[in-house]
Amino acid sequence: MSASLHLAVRNATALTTALARARGHELVSRPGFLAMNGEPLLRVLVRRPDPAPDDLAELALLVERARARVVVEDSFSTVDGGGLGLTAKHMPVMLRHARPVPPPALEVVPARTPADVALVERVVVDGFPLTGFPPGGALPAGLLDAEGVALHLARRDGEPAGACLTVAADHAIGVYWLATLPAHRSRGVGRALLHAVLADPVPATLTATDEGLPLYDSLGFEVVTRATWWSN
């Protein structure tokens, strides 16, 4: 199993840990998986390609008992979510080795206050979209205190246009929820955000949607694997 894939999974582990703490959700940590359990989502991250039978049994029990929406991210494609009543989709995990990027063509600023975080959350919720979360529930203000976590807002013509979240860990950066509001799409907003967050000379990882693949390809991201995402 490639070092790049393990790097991506470790970064996602840091994100899940930070989100669980900021949201006040239960965090279940096992060698084979990490689970963030709270309303409106049980999110499980498979951490290794060979989870122990006890870990798989506990994961299955969490899913069976869940009263919320369930998402299981399995970059190693070792979990049988179908047997748990879940449906699979596949998304590419991508890695970009450090190389220079131009400065962003639009204004991109970090979130520094709870009001900034709320604005980033609104853009991500509306642009991605994220559903089922109350205001402050998807990206809580507590993320400002999370080590390695940063939230970024892009403006176009002075208006909020796009946003993303990044996690710095293991001398790499993970990019999450890169979103552009519908009125600002195809105007270079996503590229500006990436030019801003890729300025640090470290590898970068992300999980791509089909819509984002052309942009990520153009910036030098390469597919490491196609992760299996199970959901109900």
TrEMBL record:
Transmembrane regions: none
Pfam families on file: Acetyltransf_7
Lineage: superkingdom: Bacteria
Residue ranges occupied by any N-acetyltransferase domain in the UniProt entry: 107-232
Protein name: GNAT family N-acetyltransferase
